Amino acid sequence: MGLSIRAYARHRGVSHVAVKKAIDTGRITTLADGTIDAETADAQWARNTVQPRRTPEPQKFDTKKPQARPEREIPDPVPPPLPTGGTSLLQARTVNEVLKAQLHKVELAQRKGELVDRAQAVAHVFKLARTERDAWLNWPARISAQMAARLGVEPHALHVALDAAVREHLQELGELRPRVD
Fold this sequence. Notes:
rod-shaped
């Protein structure tokens, strides 16, 4: 059998409300009968409780002997994770600051003109591809008569053969789906 909540609070030098909060948040555990084992709870309290920052007490200056400066405790830059598995306020603030920095980086790149609007880029690529396709579709009609004269073949037959070959080739190219994401 251990100590009651009030008796353990007197043992620790804190209020019974502080002990109750420590039990409720899981910083210390109770025995099966609801009492507290002082040694176990002291170890859990030291391990799971972040010490509050204390304001320095006003010092009385003695003119006869110089006072030594009290050594300041330097807190850990990253506190240990909470026992409940949640994130601490410091971790949440760090994530928030990283996201802000990334957003500012993107905004700066956009203002410098280093970023391109995706919809405009897709429209531009589509326009270029359509222009290229139209040029290839008009090529057989433009060149077939000259090629037929050089080769000594009938111009209409050469035009039909070139037109069919170009359309087949464009059909193969049309099956390719470029991704811009």
